[in-house]
Amino acid sequence: MGFVAGVTLCIWLAELPDWRWLLAGAVLGPSSRGLPTWVRPALWLAAGLSLGLAWAVWQAAQRLAMRLPAALDGQTVERVLTVRDLPVRGRHGFRVLVRVEPDAAGRMPMPSLIRVHVAGGELWPAGSRWRARIRLQPVRATANPYGFDAEAWLWAQSILASGQVIGLPRRLGDAEDGAARVDRLRARIAGRIERVLGDTREAALVTALTVGAQQHIDRAEWQLFARTGVTHLVSISGLHVGMVAGLVAWTMRQWLRRLPAGRIAPRVWVALSGLTAAGAYSLLAGWSVPTRRTFFMLAVACLLLCWRRALTPFRIWWLALAAVLLFDPFAVYFPGLWLSFGLVAALMTVSVGRRRPPDKWRGMIQGQWAASVMSVVPLVGFFAALPLISPLANLVAIPWISALVSPLCLLAAALPIDALLHLTAWLCSGFYVFITWCAGAPMWSLPSPPWPLFALGMLGSLWLIAPLGWAGRLFGALLLAPLLSYAPPRPGAGQFRATVLDVGQGLSVWIRTTRHDLLYDTGLPAAEAVVLPNLLASGVRRLDALVLSHHDADHDGGAPSLVEALPIGVLWVGQPESAHVLGMPYRRCRPGLRWQWDGVRFELLWPDEHWRDSGNNSYSCVLRVSGTHGSLLLAGDIPREVEAQLVARHGRGLASTALIAPHHGSRTSSSPPFLQAVAPHWSVISAGWRNRYGHPHPLVLRHYRAVGTAALRTDRLGAITLDFSAPPTVSGYRLTAPRHWRPMPEASGGSARYRP
After folding, report:
1. Model-level pTM?
2. Which domain covers residue 26, as residue numbers?
3. What is the 3-state secondary structure (H, E, C) of 438-460?
4. pLDDT tops 60 at residue 353
5. Which range is most confident: 275-289, 309-323, 432-446?
6. What is the pLDDT of residue 298?
7. Which helix (H) or strand (E) covers residue 507, if one does?
8. 713 DSSP β-pair partners
9. pLDDT digit string (tens) for 216-234?
């Protein structure tokens, strides 16, 4: 238990301590001899904690040392690359994961595993080797309080750099190691599935369940899986691997019953056959983190079974979890680890202390109840949403996919009978029909709780499912109630808070008052993975207003999915085209329109109905928000011509505490007269890291410095929050939530919080 806690604790460290000092704490356990009995467990727990933390810190330090050296950042080098995993096609070429071979001197001055983008030409097959020139850079992703953390995922996968192929690569002889052979086998199977079933969603699902390649599953299907709580079934995870291992073990057991007894006990053959099947399926799935986790867990269980040690189920559970983290301490970054082990613990908790097992149907209902209750807190903590239909959807989908479709996928891959693939596709089609029906059920969204409520909720869930009688269940419900009723703090009267979300090369600003929420722009379509999770995890269930500044994809591209997920009070648009795809009523932004929420004033300043221009940017909605302690000006993508119009009309009336920089800091905006009129203390520039447009332009940054404005950038600070209370403050997510694995700003412009 202490070892697991120590490995987990490493996630939240901003800096890594010296692991040797931590290792010294491991002597606390052996040194407890002769001490009172009640002291020894605490010392052994502390020793395990020190040992686990030392192990995780040492592993993290080794990985930090593998990062791309600063001297190679942006440089072009020539290396021999071996393709690992299957290539992923995109709109502008394809990307592939490659392993870099050492240079002629045998040195490796760069990460061994990098993600490479190839603009065109021949597709790089799995297991192929290429000599190519690549321009290197460290991996970087958006940084926001909630939602998918791509940087943590890349870190846990040991993908520490990316590259762009320059010029024409030259193909060499294919790799012949075991990993390359397995990858080529996976590629052949995926190719056959596509050839037989075509480019269909059923083919994409069959490919995902057979070889773990999920790149052909559309975003719409992923949303469908998330709304029904069956996403875990689409990835080859512990459920699938365990089911296949169990099926093979059962087959071996039935076969051994027909043979005479031998020297080796039948249980050993049964355990080894199941473990071998799990290992083979895990390799076929690309040896991903979920499959590795399951294989190690089964290996521990098989070892204990063969060893015949009398251990309690919970002790086996702790040993299996510790073994997984010993082999792969970075598995703690994946929610699947905690969901899978947590559900196993829930099923064991239901039966603990019972004199006899319940009957079949009662046991199934109790197991479903335990799994549903124990999944509440992790789902709220990780995803801020509970699909209410999930128990029913999983009750049908788990046996359908794990016991029927997955084994049939493997059988169809092993036998050259196309009819088996068509049968598998027909079963997948039935699965889609069922979950499409389930997706009509409502989602229960809950704000992400602080960690004390999270811990209290986990304890309450255990009390709820444990066989402790009605009094125990009532106590568990009381412990769980604070998490289910938690409401994040909001600004006071006359105050507001604005968060410029890190959506890459785009813009999305969320403004909160005491009882109202407004979203200004949604970013690119892919930004839905950022905007919606952050709104839901912060307790937003309805947007009182959505402002789509103008009809450009980096400003209104994520609107369709947002409108589908959240009710919208009023839709304001700079151009009607932004609303046409949404199919809902809207209002045009016009100068002079005003409203007030909770003592905070909102005023639209642009576009003018008589303005004519060929570009979309000139029609951006310009919104000014002012409260008791400060004001904010949001200017969309307005060019210099519109800035001049605003200065001529409003002059010093534009003065604001903060400015959302027009057009991401492009040189076509942020003219000196406009900045002098606004005179902001801060300017927030929403731009993608090393974007192809060169935003923000150096000239624009000089303009901001000339008027004494601090230019804060989402590509460096992550999401930026402006709190207009007394006094106004601003903070960047990368500085307020530092982690040893998260890239820090090259130049933040100051501390994590600023005051004018």
Report:
1. 0.89
2. 2-64
3. HCCCCEEECCCCCHHHHHHHHHH
4. no
5. 432-446
6. 82
7. none
8. 685
9. 888 888 888 888 888 877 7
Q: Is residue 14 part of a domain?
A: yes
Query: Positive or negative CA dihedral for 356, 360, 364, 365?
Result: negative
Going across the sheet that includes 682-685, the strands are 594-597, 600-606, 622-626, 631-634, 658-660, 682-685, 710-713
Percent of the chain scored above 70 by pLDDT? 93
181 falls within a domain = no
Non-local CB neighbours of 70 within 8 Å, separated by 6+ positions: none
Q: With H, G, I as helix, E, B as strand and everything else as coil, classify residue 292.
A: helix
**Does 288 share its domain with 368?**
no
Q: For the segment 247-272, what is each residue's pLDDT rounded down to a tens digit?
A: 888 888 888 877 776 677 777 888 88
Distance CA 508, CA 548 (A): 10
Write out the E strands in 513-650: 517-520, 543-548, 568-573, 587-588, 594-597, 600-606, 622-626, 631-634
Answer yes or no: do 327 and 355 share one domain: no
- Reduce the DSSP state of residue 61 to 3 states and report it: helix
Amino acid letter, 452: P
- Asked if 328 and 338 sit in the same domain, the reply is no
- Domain membership flag for residue 139: yes
- Pick from 622, 604, 624: which is nearest to 496 by CA? 624
> Which domain-ending residue is among 465, 487, 509?
487
- Comparing CA positions, the residue from 142, 91, 92, 88 lying closest to residue 115 is 88
Burial of 746 (0-12, 13-18, 19+ CB in 10 A): exposed
Query: Does a structural domain hold residue 180?
Result: no
Instruction: Indicate whether 138 and 242 sit together in one domain.
Output: no
User: Smallest Cα–Cα separation from 333: which of 550, 155, 569?
Assistant: 155
248 and 321 in a common domain: yes
Say how far apart CA 717 and CA 732 lie, in whole Å: 5
Please answer whether residues 387 and 229 qualify as being in contact, where contact means their C-beta atoms are separated by less than 8 angstroms.
yes
Q: How many structural domains does the chain have?
A: 5
Position 720, amino acid: I
